[in-house]
Amino acid sequence: LPIQAPNLSECQTAGTSSGNNCCPPYSATILDYKFTPTGKLRVRRPAHKVDEAYLAKYKKAVELMKALPADDPRSFAQQANVHCAYCDGAYDQVGFPDLELQVHNSWLFFPFHRFYLHFHERILGKLIGDDSFALPFWNWDAPAGMTIPQIFTDPSSSLYDPLRDPAHQPPEVLDMDLGDAAPTPQRQIDLNLSIMYRQMRRGGSMENSPHGPVHVWVGDPRQPNGENMGIFYSAGRDPIFYSHHANVDRMWQVWKKLNPRNVDFTDQDWLDSSFLFYDEDARLVRVKVRDCLDPEMLGFTYQKVDLPWLSKRA
Ligand code: C2O
Fold this sequence. Notes:
Belongs to the tyrosinase family. Cu cation A binds at residues 83, 104, 113. It comes from Spirodela intermedia. The chain is mostly helical. It contains eight helices and seven strands. Helix 5 runs antiparallel to helix 7. CU-O-CU linkage binds at residues 83, 87, 104, 113, 211, 215, 235, 245.
């Protein structure tokens, strides 16, 4: 059976492992989402290469989002809670009161996060009156992108989050498997490229690595659960989350272009699975997996950049 969108009126605080209330504001009206193309594609660019003008816009948009009232579903706090609600036991699966809805470790991982970023991006764009605004992607699959992107490290910026591992600030190189520290930064970069090769060419699970380790590596080890990035309920509170997931999402697309045999599932239950999100006008919408399989169906794309791991056999 397809996984049905959750029943918001039954969202529960009790039972979430974090004990947090991540339930969204309630709306009785649910619209079926139809993306309307505007003719303009939102082009997501590598976070380490954005220019000053873009950075100013992005910072402004997040600042405005953080300034929205806490009960506005488009506010930054509510956006972060979307992740918490879908991942921390706030919803049961419709028809299965004993089964919590969990979008990780399953086929729902890529489509859920694609839609999540899509609406987040549209809300940000709307706040600054720019309907071509696109999130940056954290290009951690390329050597120049294997540190926390500078745009997230300025403590006076809306993109900053104090709950991160202080030892993992640039120029510290990302450790994709959280293994023993590599002897040199160059060795770590090579290890990361081998992991990318393995996951993308040999059919590894992107969700296991590098997706998971990047979360844990960014999070603050002085917090009880590696908050913010290191645990589901709080991960969305760090603005870097959305860049991290833009790259995860980009890998779904890159994977499909690597080999004609790399195709999406055709299982109807998967295609008909649905989620609820609030859109940029604070309307509650229902989306279906079948409507997100190609980024251009949702009006965005990724700037083409080199894939240095392609030639990197482990
Ligand atoms: Cu929903 Cu990166 O986790």
